[in-house]
Amino acid sequence: MTQLTISHLSYTYPDSPEALFNDVNLTFSQGWTALIGDNGCGKTTLAHLIAGTLTPDAGSIAPKLVVALAEQDTSEVPRALSDFACDYGQEALEVRETLSIEDEWLWRYDTLSAGQKKRIQIALALWQQPDVLIVDEPTNHLDLPSRQAVAEALRGFSGIGLLISHDRALLNVITQNCLFIDAGAMELIHGTYEQGVEERRKAALNRNRDYLKERRELVRIKAVREQTRAKAAQKKGRSPKASPRDSDAREKANHAKATSKDGILTRQVSALNSRLGKLERDAHTRPQGKYNGEIPTFGHCAARSVLVHLASQTIPFGPDAEAGVSISELYVGSSDKIALMGANGVGKTTLARVLIKAVPDDIATLVLPQELKAPQRSAVLNQLHELSDRECGQVLSVAAQLNARPETFLEGEALSPGELRKLCLALAVLQDPALLILDEPTNHLDIHSIEALSHVLQAFPGAVVLISHDQTLLQEVCTVRWEIEQDETGNSRLSLSS
Known about the structure:
There is one protein chain. By secondary structure, the chain is of the alpha/beta class. The protein folds into two domains: 3-191, P-loop containing nucleotide triphosphate hydrolases (Rossmann fold), CATH 3.40.50; 306-497, Rossmann fold, CATH 3.40.50. It has helices spanning 43-51, 81-86, 90-98, 114-127, 144-155, 168-174, 193-237, 248-281, 348-358, 374-385, 389-401, 406-410, 417-431, 447-459, 471-477, and strands at residues 3-11, 21-29, 31-36, 58-62, 67-70, 132-136, 160-164, 177-182, 185-190, 306-310, 313-317, 323-327, 330-333, 337-342, 365-368, 435-439, 463-467, 480-486, 492-497. It has an eight-stranded mixed sheet with strand order 11-12-19-18-14-17-16-15, with helices on both faces. Strands 5-6-7-3-8-9 form a six-stranded mixed sheet, sandwiched between helices. A three-stranded antiparallel sheet has the order 2-1-4, with no helix packed on it. The protein starts with a strand and ends with a strand.
């Protein structure tokens, strides 16, 4: 059986004061292992170390195997795409069929939707038939049928698979092992995501129970020690009776006995303190920066009742604009919470762009695209660094409540896509927007962050247009539904419901 072994691996981000990984030892076997952890914990960095696109500071990864990495970002044209497009062998045709990839897509990658690009990216990685396949957020951008197709395709891979995902359904369907990463500590558990979470929950309960038991024992022994010391002090201060039978030897013996008992109790206290310290240092018992309901309300509800108006029209989209989205007259009210829904490639993002252009200049609007390109990433970080101390504190406070680690924004560490999205949302607290237009905002976010985002959007006083395939989020936040459906000719029509 093929295995991949990581030995004594250490890695520190450039300009970071602390190591991300220190002396990591792991073994991955055939089958799928999920890498689980909050944004910024190092999942993607570990993937790049295994793939060889990053070099560890120390340690080794052996043996040398063929590794294919399907990254989070779909903006770059994948290498070897033209070779895949020209291959009509059985393996290439089978993977295209499984993922419902049309031949002509492979020749117009730049014009495809993010969901279509993601399917091509995964197909290309599978087509290479690697020893190790790493897929990073493979269901980002995908509608339900596409997610099911991806799960089927990945289940058919027989090598060593490493899955980075916050899609709980996918994690439970294909994984046999879970590697939980938390503050540099790693724990490998056999089983699905739900089984791994349950095992960790039980282990945490046992640790907490042991901690409380040790605390109670410490209190008891300290009380006994204090009583012993008090009795010894009382005897020492008591005036000896005048008796020929009393002697210094008896007094010394009693004092030695009390001192000996005190010494035993003191050693027991020291041992208990040591065990308690170990429990407190345990990564699983430390307080975590999860959402706790304290995100400050930001934004406002505009005075005007209608923020955006679109007349009835057909909006062209697709390559050469040969297809169109037909819409009736549309309005975005000042406090509407709108779900913009539809399968991949039907024109959701195209309609969102038209909406953005129609927003009046005096309506403060936060737009979060599906992916942040390199110039946008730099602009976001520059904006943070140019803030005053007070403004920076406000932004980092909101980011922390979105389950981010604020210090990563200030220490020059490489930010994960999830952390960048949280920072964009946190910066909105200074913008005071009346309208949010968010395209797949849960992409790259960890589970706790998605829960926090849901609370933020529910409490937002202004209008929200939310493009997402996350049905739970849409149900929690939205009261109006705009759904785009496509016919056999490739044209789409928007229907409204509430």
